[in-house]
Design brief:
With about 350 residues, this protein is α/β, with parallel strands linked by helices. Helices cover about 30% and strands about 20% of the residues. It has 12 helices and 14 strands. The strands form 3 sheets. A 7-stranded mixed sheet has the order 3-4-5-6-9-10-14, with helices on both faces. It has a 4-stranded antiparallel sheet with strand order 2-1-12-11. It has a 3-stranded antiparallel sheet with strand order 8-7-13, with no helix packed on it. The model is unreliable at about 1-25 (pLDDT under 50).
Length: about 350
């Protein structure tokens, strides 16, 4: 009897429901026009740095939306999306589809411009035997041959930064340190900020950030300030930090942190200029894309999104030198620390 009453109550309640849409969220449509609108609208709502990138997103819609038809093929649609994202020139903006090479909006990373000017194999030739290397060279540290200088590199910014303590403890009596952030592809910058505390003797403000929290172009959270705070034992030695055009995202935020130290010389090339937080999204046809949802300003009140962090001393390798086993940037860093 109780079961019958329950069924009657459910049936009666459903008589007052206007539709089943209250129970089910409609899936995004999987056809070219809907896919275009989904991609464009997501960027319009969530992308944080149109102004810094100098892109009028409405103009992109007006130009590219008429190109998309009901019968637009997947290959054509991928090309249209790529062309629309191109002016952003953002290393955090990507488009991924099955069977296709990942599209990266940033020209340097997409075309691998001068990618070969950094060689981990050449770096090893500068180190004394017995250097330490993590899996896939996520970190490498050792002592420079015939020099009283410590060297450490980080391929990204994650748990590999825990090795900074070991490095400092292993070489406490050297003249100085080379910290290599070239080709650092990012990760989670907080690992750097927590682990480099032994290199600061006071709180050092680095940058502030705010994140999109609404559909309007000016809908952001309040600014949040990020600083590096001291930890013991304090280590104070001259440091040269190496950067290049492939230093990106959390790698750039690491460079920002080292750059506020008075005993640090930033050397190499200007960084990539993509350092806001990146998120990923999926389209109804299974394609994936990424975008940046955060603004970042340094202690000088300026944004370097799309610009990059400039070195104090610009030094660039050549392909001929690298092929000959010479890293000019490394050699200049050694010279500066002698």
């Amino acid at each position: 009897m109780q079961k019958a009453l329950s069924l009657l109550m459910i049936a009666g309640a459903m008589m007052f429901l206007p539709s089943c849409s209250l129970f089910f969220i409609e899936e995004p449509a999987d056809h070219p026009e809907a896919l275009f609108d989904h991609l464009w609208t997501t960027f319009d709502r969530d992308y944080a740095v149109f102004e810094e990138r100098g892109v009028n997103w409405q103009q992109q819609y007006d130009h590219f939306r008429p190109l998309v038809k009901a019968n637009t093929s997947e290959d054509e649609l991928f090309d249209i999306f790529s062309a629309m994202l191109l002016p952003l020139d953002d290393g955090h903006v990507t488009l991924t589809a099955p069977g296709k090479e990942v599209y990266i909006s940033n020209t340097i990373r997409r075309e691998k411009t001068d990618d070969a000017l950094f060689s981990p194999e050449v770096i090893r030739t500068y180190l004394e035997p017995g250097f330490v290397a993590g899996a896939e060279d996520e970190f490498v540290f050792g002592k420079i041959r015939n020099e009283n200088i410590g060297y450490i590199s980080f391929a990204h910014v994650r748990e590999n930064f825990f090795n900074l303590h070991t490095f400092l403890n292993t070489y406490p009596d050297v003249k100085g340190y080379i910290i290599d952030l070239r080709h650092n592809d990012g990760g989670d910058f907080t690992y750097c900020y927590s682990e480099m505390g032994r290199l600061v003797d006071q709180d050092r403000f680095v940058f502030r950030s705010k994140t999109k929290n609404g559909p309007g172009y000016n809908d952001f959270t309040p600014w949040f300030e990020w600083s590096v705070r001291p930890a013991s034992p304090y280590v104070h030695k001259p440091i040269v930090v190496l950067i290049d055009r492939y230093t990106i995202s959390a790698g750039e935020r690491a460079a920002m942190a080292f750059d506020v130290l008075p005993n640090v010389l930033l050397m190499g090339e200007i960084t990539n200029g993509a350092h806001g937080t990146m998120i990923g999204r999926e389209l109804a046809n299974g394609w994936f894309f990424s975008l940046v949802t955060q603004k970042v300003e340094l202690s000088d009140g300026l944004s370097y999104e799309g610009v990059g962090i400039a070195p104090d001393l610009e030094v660039t390798n050549t392909l001929e030198e690298i092929l000959a086993g010479t890293d000019r940037v490394m050699e200049r860093a050694i010279t500066e620390l002698r």
